[in-house]
Amino acid sequence: MSLVTLDNVTVRHNANPVLHNVNFSIQPGEIVTIVGPNGSGKSTFLRTIIGALRPNHGTVSQAPGLRIGYVPQKLHIDPTLPLTVRRFLSLPSPVNGAAAGRALEQAGAGQLMKRQMTGLSGGQFQRVLLARALLCDPQLLILDEATQGLDQPGSAAFYQQIEQLRGSLGCAILMVSHELHVVMAASDRVICLNGHICCEGAPEHVASAPEYRALFGSGTQGALALYRHEHNHSHDHSCGHDHAHDAQPASPDLNGTRT
Ligand SMILES: Nc1ncnc2c1ncn2[C@@H]1O[C@H](COP(=O)(O)OP(=O)(O)OP(=O)(O)O)[C@@H](O)[C@H]1O
């Protein structure tokens, strides 16, 4: 059974159609990535799925009792506000220390519990947002441009964490990203959105689709191939071929340096 289904959904902002006749569903454990140019309706799509926006036409249905974890695009915290990670995770509802620690571990941020929110690096901050989304033990985890502002190794490490979470928690993941070559390697299905669904399918299929290339050009496909190569092999650099041009998704050291 699908976790969420959109049936012929149209959404307008101030009478302007932003999404038009969109059909979509996501299955348990699936990783789906939404790509599309600025203003193409990606955030509107996510907000419609979580129920923050009502469609003007069509229907949105959720599996009964569906638990959704949401990682926003960004979150501003007043730099003068003293707020530890532990306290942040208890907003708006209190959580016990064990649950907070478990969520931080799952997000790859186990050692950040006592840190000040305003002292975190961009990557650490996003992992804390991820931990907060995991507190409800989501069946569907939604991420809206969650790696904005991170460098490419930081983004790649973040998405590898997401892939691991799908493996360990079994949750489905729906994410929006501009970093096509990084994100697509972790996706089961990619949807190219531009007010309507232009094309969808396996990452390789979408990367070579004419609709996708019309929007993004063809440069990404080479980067995707490189990343897949790096992503799939055993990381044994002694096997004799040239890695000089491989994309290198590194594991960030959450204390601030990178390995
Ligand atoms: N609350 C709103 N009121 C009026 N117009 C809106 C509102 N939210 C979004 N829009 C408009 O709807 C269109 C789609 O916006 P949306 O944020 O969904 O796109 P996006 O693909 O997520 O963009 P980006 O990649 O820039 O984040 C844009 O033209 C935007 O200006």
From TrEMBL:
Span of domain ABC transporter: 4-219
E.C. designation(s)? 3.6.3.-
> What biological processes does GO assign it?
response to zinc ion; zinc ion transport
Q: Is Cell membrane among this UniProt entry's keywords? A: yes
Q: Which PROSITE patterns match?
A: ABC_TRANSPORTER_1, ABC_TRANSPORTER_2
Among SUPFAM superfamilies, the record links this protein to: P-loop containing nucleoside triphosphate hydrolases
Q: Where is this region: Disordered?
A: 234-259
| Basic and acidic residues biased stretches | 234-246
> Gene3D superfamilies, alphabetically?
P-loop containing nucleotide triphosphate hydrolases
Keyword annotations for this protein, in alphabetical order, are: ATP-binding, Cell membrane, Hydrolase, Ion transport, Membrane, Nucleotide-binding, Plasmid, Translocase, Transport, Zinc, Zinc transport
| One annotated GO molecular function | ATP hydrolysis activity
InterPro entries in the record:
AAA+_ATPase, ABC_transporter-like_ATP-bd, ABC_transporter-like_CS, Metal_Ion_Import_ABC, P-loop_NTPase
- Asked if the keyword Transcription regulation belongs to this entry, the reply reads no
Kindly provide the name given to this protein in its UniProt entry.
Answer: Zinc import ATP-binding protein ZnuC
